[in-house]
């Protein structure tokens, strides 16, 4: 298991990771591009504003970052299938070891890409702007967008944004890995998070699921449940639950396809 994990990790460490990390920060900034230019010139902005604005209705952070999380590694299974290398890899490492290592490295890579990209943007912006406006006086610990810790505990706000970035990237990369068992088309796999996110949002609007209980709204930093610490715990529990369910489905589907000889 260690050998196959090491091999897959080495495969995941490629130039695409670096490019995607940079694009994550660009996506968050691009949701407030005009504001960023104006505030950078005047020096009157603050870091929290850019994360607040992208969480409020940022198209790039909502739809493009999930795609970016998939690009570095989540298409690797489809690449093995297309290159007709999957049976050789499975023969060398074993069915379960191969699919488990694929899934683990897949969602971890996606999570790390978004987490590092978010952290780098946060630290970069903090060199130019304060984390939060000093005018934040009439705020409560349970206010949306984590206004309170942004103002009074910037270090925890940085950790929150980084952790939630990892959670979002991990979920979408894991789901894309599952999609790759149904199609080996690389572009379909890369676009699948966009399609799933769009379908999820439309479904929530149609059946009336409130933002307060939506995991995606929690992980993007829009909703606060009781306080920021509780929200982080809820977000982590939700993320782990989704990853476990997706992982079980991935392993079950992979082993079924092996038994059916679908990869031959």
Automatic annotation (TrEMBL):
It comes from Butyrivibrio fibrisolvens. It comes from the Bacteria. This is ABC-2 family transporter protein. Keywords: Membrane, Transmembrane, Transmembrane helix. The chain crosses the membrane at residues 12-33, 103-129, 158-179, 186-203, 232-251.
């Amino acid at each position: 298991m260690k050998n196959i994990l090491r091999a897959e990790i080495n495969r995941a460490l490629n130039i695409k990771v670096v490019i995607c990390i940079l694009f994550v920060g660009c996506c968050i900034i691009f949701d407030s591009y005009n504001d960023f230019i104006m505030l950078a010139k005047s020096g009157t902005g603050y870091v929290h504003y850019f994360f607040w604005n992208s969480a409020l209705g940022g198209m790039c952070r909502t739809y493009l970052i999930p795609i970016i999380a998939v690009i570095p590694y989540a298409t690797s299974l489809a690449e093995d299938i297309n290159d007709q290398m999957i049976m050789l890899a499975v023969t060398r490492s074993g069915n379960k070891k191969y699919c488990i290592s694929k899934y683990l490295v897949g969602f971890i890579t996606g999570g790390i890409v978004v987490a590092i990209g978010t952290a780098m943007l946060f630290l970069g912006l903090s060199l130019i702007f304060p984390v939060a406006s000093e005018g934040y006086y009439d705020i409560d610990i349970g206010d949306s967008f984590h206004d309170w810790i942004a103002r009074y505990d910037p270090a925890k706000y940085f950790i929150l944004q980084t952790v939630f970035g990892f959670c979002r990237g991990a979920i979408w990369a894991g789901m894309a890995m599952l999609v790759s068992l149904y199609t080996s088309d690389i572009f379909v796999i890369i676009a699948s998070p966009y399609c799933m996110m769009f379908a999820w949002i439309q479904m929530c609007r149609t059946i009336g699921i409130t933002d307060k209980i939506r995991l995606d709204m929690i992980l993007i930093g829009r909703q606060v449940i009781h306080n920021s610490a509780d929200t982080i715990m809820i977000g982590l529990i939700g993320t782990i639950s989704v990853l476990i369910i997706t992982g079980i489905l991935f392993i079950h589907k992979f082993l079924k396809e092996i038994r059916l000889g679908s990869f031959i």
